[in-house]
Amino acid sequence: MQVKLNSIVVAGLVAFGGVAMAQETVEVRIGHVGPTSGGIAHLGKDNELGARMAIDDLNAKKIKIGGKVAVFKLFAEDDAGDPKQGTAAAQKLVDSKVHGVIGHLNSGTSIPAAKVYSDAGVPQISPSATNPKFTRQGFKTTFRVVADDVHLGGTLGKYAVQKLKGKSIVVIDDRTAYGQGVADEFEKGVKAAGGKTVGREFTNDKATDFTAILTSLKAKNPDVVFFGGMDAVAGPMLRQMKALGIKAKLVGGDGICTAGLPGLAAGAMSDDQVYCAEAGGVEGAAKKGLDDFKARFKAKNNLEVQVYAPYVYDATMVMAAAMEKAGSPEPSKYLPVLAKTAGYKGVTGVISFDDKGDIKNGALTLYTYKGGERAELAVIR
């Protein structure tokens, strides 16, 4: 029986030799890192699901790299938003011989992990790390597909003064690379717009009690409170602001600008109280592509996009496009092509990289919340 079966297989291969040769494959290993445990696990999972959608779509397309059908495999790691765990996850992916990495979510993990990838020559594209330092370490392997905090924090600072008419502006940050960085840029933006901040406090990214900080700031009668941090902290902060009778607007960066913030605030958030910016955005005809992606994402995962799943998707697709154009998934071969990416049309808009690996002409989307839902105010470049 074994001889007979083997004869049939051989005969089939001879008869359909052209098809067999056409299906020769090459395995492409893509790493993804984000916090899929801990307080912002919902954001890390959002990112990971964006990567999985890209992998599924790439495999369905059966693109060819170097004449072989590429079979993409995702290697997903959890960094829990912790810098030490982030570098350990990075080293694990390097040891697994991944061809490229999408991540990390946080600036605090992306910045130290970047050196691990650089030392190994493995390209890294972050879909959401916004601290300027990320692409200013001199590494040729580092890229991002969103605008940085200089743009984001500065824009929010000006908005707080010019649009929200903030007269008594206070700042709180969570002392992470992201939170402190975006808060610093916000203060610069306030000053550039002719305003001033009257107080600054700090907490940490795992805190749940802000009574002392908020009581201190309440004495300054703030009309705008800026928070540099993530939604898992901003939600409880909004609840305690309400309990203390602080009626100020809460302004924050992309870390709080999530679909999950209203739930985390547990009814303590009123309409037009929170203003935030997402480091990305599309307008006009391009908006249909993003809307279509969000609809597909919900149909596939039974979840709404939180923030950055579309940017993860595009980062993965840009990396694959560079491999396809270079004819190889080997980092040394496709990295020069990736660095020259220009005019790639993704679901989040057009992607081109500058000489630091930053996206050119990066957009910001300003939002508020109405009826427990994000409401877009404007796209700014």
Task: Give the tally of β-strands.
Answer: 15
Distance between the termini: 69 Å
Which H/E pattern describes the elements? HHEHEEHEHEEHEHEHEHEHEHHHEEEE
- Mean pLDDT reading: 92
| Residues in β-strands, percent | 15-25%
- Rg over CA atoms: 23 Å
Number of helices: 13
Large-scale geometry? elongated
| Sheet with the most strands: spatial strand order | 8-7-9-10-11-14-15
Question: Uncertain segments of ≥5 residues (pLDDT<50)?
Answer: 1-21
Number of domains: 2
- Using the coordinates shown, work out and report the CATH topology of the largest domain: Rossmann fold
Domain Leucine-binding protein: 27-372
Signal peptide: 1-22
Organism: Inhella crocodyli
Protein name: Branched-chain amino acid ABC transporter substrate-binding protein
Q: Can you lay out the helices and strands and say which pair or pack?
A:
Blueprint: H1 2-15, H2 17-22, E1 25-34, H3 41-61, E2 64-65, E3 68-78, H4 83-95, E4 100-103, H5 107-120, E5 124-126, E6 142-144, H6 149-162, E7 169-173, H7 177-192, E8 197-202, H8 211-218, E9 224-228, H9 231-243, E10 249-252, H10 261-265, E11 274-278, H11 287-301, H12 309-326, H13 331-339, E12 344-346, E13 349-351, E14 364-370, E15 373-380
Parallel strand pairs: 1-3, 1-4, 4-5, 5-6, 7-8, 7-9, 9-10, 10-11
Antiparallel strand pairs: 2-3, 11-14, 12-13, 14-15
